[in-house]
Amino acid sequence: MNTPAVRVLYIDDEENNLNAFKASFRRQYEIYTATSAAEGLKILENVDIHVIIADQKMPGMTGVQFFKSITDTFPDPTRILLTGYTDIEALADAINHGDIYRYITKPWSDLELHNSIKNAFDAYKSKVDLRNKIAELEKTNDELNRFIYSISHELRAPLVSVIGIVNLVKMEDLFESSGEYWSLIETCSNKLDYYIQKTLQYYKNNKTISDNTRVDFKKLISELIDLYSYTDRETQFNVKIDQEIDFYGDAFRIEVILGNLISNAIKYQKTSEVNKKVNIDIVVNPHHVEISINDNGMGILNEHLEKIFTQFFKSKNHHGSGLGLFIVKEALNRINGKISVSSDVAVGTTFKIKIPNDTNQ
Amino acid sequence: MTPISNQKRVMIIDDNEVDLKINSKIISITKLFDEVIICQSAEEALSFIHGNLAAADKLPNFILLDIQMPEMDGFEFLEQYRKLPVSFTSTCWIAMLSSTLDFGDIQKAEANPYVVKLLKKPLKPAELQEILSRYYKQS
Question: Which of A245, A233, A319, A349 is nearest to A289 (CA)?
């Protein structure tokens, strides 16, 4: 089997050393030699070198100086410095400035040098492999971004048109005109839209770098209630907000968290309940915000409480996607928030959240 | 801000023919406006406005503006819109109408001085009605 040729450049002003090196290693490596830094540079410019060995003591430019001079122009080849036994200053300089992989004292032992070149080539290869992998990942990431973008626009736009048509059908009193077909179309379209929205939220939560903006809870909560109570006007909201100071946090994630909890509180009401209620209490202090969202809905079975934050967990009787609370938990993790839940099937459910207030930024 | 006297003509700017059809139908059913001006692109809308600057009775009092459009998108339209004479822009509000879920889009839209709100598709008559009663004197 052909192993790839390892290309080694050896720079030394003493030609004897160059010859000895060639004699020892010509069978294993593709060897290039130069008697000065300038000559070495010329070779680097023309040949794709993997490992550079340079003598420290050379007239004009030392080995370390040479390595320093090519840090930007030729960052990839792995560097080995050859030097006399006692040259401690060169050693320190090499470690501190030269980006040098190995330091070998003269006279070298063939075995030691051979092993060093082998390891140096491996280091070169990992460096290049890593860079290729990063480039590949960046490309994949870019494609994923474009895919998500097309989900949120190209894929969702026609679905929203369908929902718009269903709304028109209702406005024109045609909803009941074809048995239950229109209402089935509506249910399916809404479900699909819900999944698209949750998928985007989950993805954005993972991708978006957390920002730090001023959050006005009064405004945010009233917008969210407007948004989610649109289809259900029966639920009464009691909102108490105690925010006398500014709160700084990740507005996007806080909206996602509260949006999911409020929409759940509305969605999981008892159908038999006459006074459907959701209480929202928010207290902001300089260190954090404490939010409590309490409903008198159907509650969560004790044995389910542990599992509600896991992906795709859904209780048998209710039509959830198993994504809402999972996204809440993931988003809270990103912003160092905490959540706890208590529930009683007879009374309802309370979620308590604590999110740090990042005022000093 | 002072409410604009009253709303008569709405301009809908959207490259999507289905949505144009849906939204003009909603407006004709709800009778929120007397007249609908339909534009399939932001360029078409601008040239309509430029062509009718002298004829106030042809100009829209309200614009529903899509965001995602080929060539000139909604935000680029807004850039051009602010160059129009104040005599017109002070008599016409804009609501953006989009299926976007992008947080940035929403913030950017509502930060624009000419935009009263970003409405999410599908257009809901009640939401439109609420904007109109807030920004226009009802006759």
Answer: A245
**0.90 surpassed by pTM:** no
Element (DSSP H or E) covering residue A315: none
Contacts of B87 (CB under 8 A, 6+ apart): none
Residue whose C-alpha is closest to residue A300's, from A282, A281, A313, A312: A313
Domain that holds residue B101: 9-135
Q: What is the pLDDT of residues A179-205, one digit of tens each?
A: 999 999 998 998 899 888 888 888 878
Which strands, in side-by-side order, build the sheet including B35-39?
B35-39, B9-13, B62-65, B93-98, B115-120
Q: Is A153 on the interface with B (CB under 8 A)?
A: yes
DSSP 8-state class, residue A40: H
Non-local CB neighbours of B90 within 8 Å, separated by 6+ positions: B4
Of A77, A358, A166, the C-alpha closest to A245 is A358
- Which of A156, A168, A171 minimises the CB distance to B99? A156
How far, CA to CA in Å, does A290 sit from each of A210, A295, A356? Answer: 20, 17, 9
Residue B49 backbone phi and psi in degrees, to 5: -65, -45
Count of domains in chain B? 1
Name which of A120-124, A179-183, A269-273, A311-315 the model is least confident about: A311-315
DSSP-assigned letter for residue A33? E
Cα–Cα distance, A298 to A271 (Å, whole number) = 9
**The token pair that represents A352 in the structure block:** 């308590």
A60 touches B: beta carbon within 8 Å: no
- DSSP 8-state assignment for residue A101: S
Instruction: Find the helix or strand (DSSP H, E) in which A29 lies.
Output: none
B3 inside domain: no
CATH assignment of the domain containing B118: 3.40.50.2300
According to the model, what pLDDT value does residue B65 have?
Answer: 97
B92: enclosing H helix or E strand:
none
Partner-chain residue, chosen from B30, B102, B122, that has the shortest CB–CB distance to A164: B122
Best residue in A149, A159, A167, A219 to probe B by mutation, most B CBs within 10 Å? A167
How many alpha carbons lie under 13 Å from residue A324 in its C-beta half-sphere? Answer: 17
Token pair in block for residue A349: 């459910």
Question: Distance (Å, rounded) from C-alpha A339 to C-alpha A245?
Answer: 22
Residue B17 within a domain:
yes
Whole-angstrom distance, CA of residue A197 vs CA of residue A128: 39
> Do the chains contact at B122 and A152, CB–CB below 8 Å?
no
CATH number for region A211-361: 3.30.565.10
What are the tokens at A275? Answer: 């006074």
